[in-house]
Amino acid sequence: MAVLVLGDLGLSPRMQYHALSLAEERAAVELIGYRGSELPPELIAHPAVTVHRLPAPPSLDADRGRWLWLDGGRRLAAQSLLLLRLLLAGLPRPDLLLVQNPPPMPALAVAWLAARLRRARLVVDWHNFGHAMLALKLGRRHPAVRLVAGHERRWGRRADGHLTVSRAMSAELKRWGIDARVLYDRPPQRFRPTPAADRHRLFRRLAAALDLPPGIGGSAGDQTATPFTE
After folding, report:
1. Average pLDDT, the chain
2. Which residues form the domain of 226?
3. Helix, strand, or coil here: 74?
4. How many domains does one find in the chain?
């Protein structure tokens, strides 16, 4: 199986967890995304996970004016070719390709093409709408926002399956004719509640370092509780 994030892999905990969960079920996982932040040790060391780190594309210069469209087109073309080459020739044929959205461009179209050519099923995990995020920067009526929205709707609907992070997102996708199954985020096992004794020691140190009022860090004779840990 292949898990694709056209973003910093280290900043994509949900997709990391997908990859780790699939690997724990004895699936061979190809995890693909941009270089950047470090990945969790258990993911790097897992024998069933192979990580492919792609170079992040250069950021666009908004001051380029009329040339911004040309710069954006060139960047999308370069991203598409690099990603398509990897998906078609750089990894074993996957049974399933799971891709994160956003960003929709060029991920959705390239993933769809690669899935069809390699006879794999395509599943989109909808975290948000790419065009809605772009509209926050450019405004809802900007031509680029309309372009991304059309691309997102067209190629997203061609996937074989859909996941999403919330019921609200699922309801919004239904307006596009997309039936997405809600899969809530669940923290990996490395995240656990902090024991009360550890919390107590932390707040006592903070109270001393920040010179907080008496009692915030707990009484001198009480080694088990503070107002924050009771």
Report:
1. 86
2. 193-230
3. helix
4. 2
